[in-house]
């Protein structure tokens, strides 16, 4: 089993068939139903169907049903169990933003498209809401018929059972592996590599990681900051260039470095690991120790002494407008840091890469207040517009009715027609024909198409943000890509720097501010 290469090669015969299908498609009438092809594959084995084969089969199905192919949503190396259709990179873009551009969604087999009954139910509801159809190449699925709706539910149930069985087997393997003193499955903790001892899988210490961890421990005992240690480790090549302070601290605080089995500790809002205890109530040893218990305990004590008691994490985060306030010098986020001096606590806005976090901007709330005022002045009076889906079926039906009526009256006004026999009937028919023509001309052609329309809800962003507070404003600013550069300038004789804010607003901010409803929000 291997991961499938997204840039898969098409054979000469495949390309020839593709060209034939496209030529046949070009002969379809302009109003032919539009099809989106969904191609998915998690891993390639001898039993799976390649993306090339899936696409060609679906194009053949589209030709059979008279569909015009308008796009191919190809999501490879993606698990249908873990990632629902609306969260996949390509298919999700079509479902969330390009729904007016297709009428039917074609897929090779239901388990290539979806594997959970809840996801299937969501997609059926979505299709009913937007007037779309689901069509499978190898399953009797067609939402336009009662039998097809029953079949899609039954087949989806079978797919979910198969996925659940696979999940159960994997879970059972992990539950068994975590109680064993040998390394059976999984990625080892930093500092270890997998090997074999007497033909059995085991863990061994990785030499360069061992050197880096012990060097970091010695520096921690000397009182060196974790940030300084991370910089030195990257420069020396002992750890990768992407190393962050939080990653280094997480590695140094992992009890797995004593050779014990650990599991993720989800308590406390921090990414930490905790020991797994065996049936005897003692930690399970799975490898040789990098640190002895005494070395590990003294390391933790040193890290605790150096650590700072930062603000408690709140529901909205310790830093307001995180991702909006950006340091002008190093282009990293400004975050709230707390320092202690002479028994008093002080909070500052600092950045991530400037030396020492740059000049500390005290009183973060003052910075927030200035930012709020600038945003309200520039964007506050913009109207709140909501994107809604408008169907063109009703307008199309009205256009057809008028065209048929006009054709009827025109034919009957011809010589020997029923309206041409008397002056009275001809004049009445001509007036009716004029009225029908005016009604047809009054219909905007755009309204006959499925489309997105913008609806003003009567509010301004100022009113919405005043009701929702800073959190609502920050969320919208991040959504549309508005940032604020923070410049801190040293003032002679004054401890606190001068702080200047500069808003950076995208040119298409009006379009970005449009609120796009999420049909799948409740399912995420």
Explain this structure.
The protein has 524 residues and is α/β, with parallel strands linked by helices. It has four domains: 12-168, Resolvase, N-terminal catalytic domain (Rossmann fold), CATH 3.40.50.1390; 192-306, Alpha-Beta Complex (Hect, E3 ligase catalytic domain fold), CATH 3.90.1750; 325-382 and 454-523, no CATH class; 392-449. Helix content is 41%, strand content 19%. It is built from 15 helices and 17 strands. The chain has helices at 12-26, 51-65, 89-97, 110-113, 117-130, 146-177, 207-221, 226-236, 245-252, 293-306, 364-379, 393-412, 423-442, 461-480, 509-512, and strands at 34-41, 68-76, 104-107, 133-136, 192-197, 200-205, 262-265, 272-275, 325-327, 335-341, 344-350, 361-362, 383-390, 451-460, 483-489, 498-504, 515-516. A four-stranded parallel beta sheet has the order 2-1-3-4, with helices on both faces. A three-stranded mixed beta sheet has the order 9-15-16, covered by helices on one side. It is flat, with a radius of gyration of 32 Å. The two termini are 30 Å apart. The model is unreliable at 1-7 (pLDDT under 50).
Strand residue percentage: 15-25%
Q: What's the β-strand tally? A: 17
What percentage of residues falls in helices of 4 or more residues?
40-55%
How many domain units?
Answer: 4
Low-confidence stretches: 1-7
Please state the CA-atom Rg, rounded to the nearest Å.
Answer: 32 Å
Structural category is: alpha/beta
CATH homologous superfamily annotation of the largest domain: Resolvase, N-terminal catalytic domain
Q: What's the tally of helices? A: 15
Could you say which overall geometry the principal axes of the C-alpha atoms support?
Answer: flat
Sheet having the most strands: 4 strands, parallel
């Amino acid at each position: 089993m291997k991961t499938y290469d997204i840039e898969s090669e098409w054979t000469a015969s495949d390309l020839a068939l593709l060209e034939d299908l496209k030529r046949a498609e070009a002969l379809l009438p302009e109003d032919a139903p539009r099809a989106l092809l969904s191609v998915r594959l998690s891993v390639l084995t001898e039993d799976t169907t390649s993306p090339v084969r899936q696409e060609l089969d679906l194009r053949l199905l589209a030709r059979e049903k008279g569909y015009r192919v308008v796009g191919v949503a190809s999501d490879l190396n993606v698990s249908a169990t873990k990632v629902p259709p609306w969260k996949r990179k390509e298919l999700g873009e079509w479902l969330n933003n390009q729904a007016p551009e297709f009428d039917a969604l074609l897929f090779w087999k239901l388990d290539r498209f979806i594997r959970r009954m809840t996801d299937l139910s969501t997609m059926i509801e979505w299709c009913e809401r937007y007037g779309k159809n689901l069509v499978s190449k190898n399953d009797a699925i067609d939402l336009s018929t009662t039998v097809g709706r029953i079949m899609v539910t039954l087949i989806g149930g079978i797919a979910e059972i198969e996925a659940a069985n696979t999940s159960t087997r994997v879970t059972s393997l992990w539950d068994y592996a975590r109680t064993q003193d040998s390394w059976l499955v999984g990625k080892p903790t930093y500092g270890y590599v997998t090997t074999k001892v007497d033909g059995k899988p085991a863990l061994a210490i990785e030499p360069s990681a061992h050197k880096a961890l012990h060097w970091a421990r010695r520096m921690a005992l000397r009182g060196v900051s974790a940030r300084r240690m991370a910089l030195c480790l990257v420069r020396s090549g002992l750890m990768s260039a992407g190393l962050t302070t939080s990653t280094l601290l997480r590695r140094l605080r992992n009890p797995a470095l004593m050779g014990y089995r650990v599991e993720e500790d989800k308590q406390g809002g921090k990414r930490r690991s905790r020991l797994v205890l065996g049936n005897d109530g003692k930690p399970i040893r799975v490898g040789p120790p990098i640190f002895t218990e005494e070395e590990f305990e003294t390391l933790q004590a040193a890290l605790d002494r150096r650590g700072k008691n930062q603000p408690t994490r709140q529901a909205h985060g310790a830093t307001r407008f995180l991702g909006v306030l950006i340091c002008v010098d190093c282009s990293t986020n400004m975050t709230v840091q707390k320092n202690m001096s002479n028994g008093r606590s002080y909070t500052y806005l600092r950045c991530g890469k400037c030396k020492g976090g740059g000049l500390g901007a005290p009183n973060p709330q003052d910075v927030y207040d200035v930012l709020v005022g600038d945003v309200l002045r520039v964007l506050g009076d913009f109207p709140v517009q909501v994107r809604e889906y408008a169907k063109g079926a009703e307008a199309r039906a009205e256009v057809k009715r008028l065209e048929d009526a006009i054709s009827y009256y025109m034919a009957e006004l011809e010589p020997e027609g029923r309206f041409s026999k008397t002056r009275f009937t001809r004049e009445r028919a001509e007036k009716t024909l004029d009225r029908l023509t005016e009604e047809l001309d009054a219909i905007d052609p755009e309204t006959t198409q499925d489309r997105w329309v913008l609806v003003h809800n009567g509010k301004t962003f100022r009113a919405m943000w005043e009701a929702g507070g800073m959190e609502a404003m920050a969320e919208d600013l991040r959504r549309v890509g508005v940032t604020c550069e923070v410049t801190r300038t040293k003032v002679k004789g004054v401890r606190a720097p001068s702080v200047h804010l500069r808003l950076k607003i995208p040119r298409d901010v009006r379009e970005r501010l449009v609120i796009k409803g999420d049909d799948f929000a409740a399912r995420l």
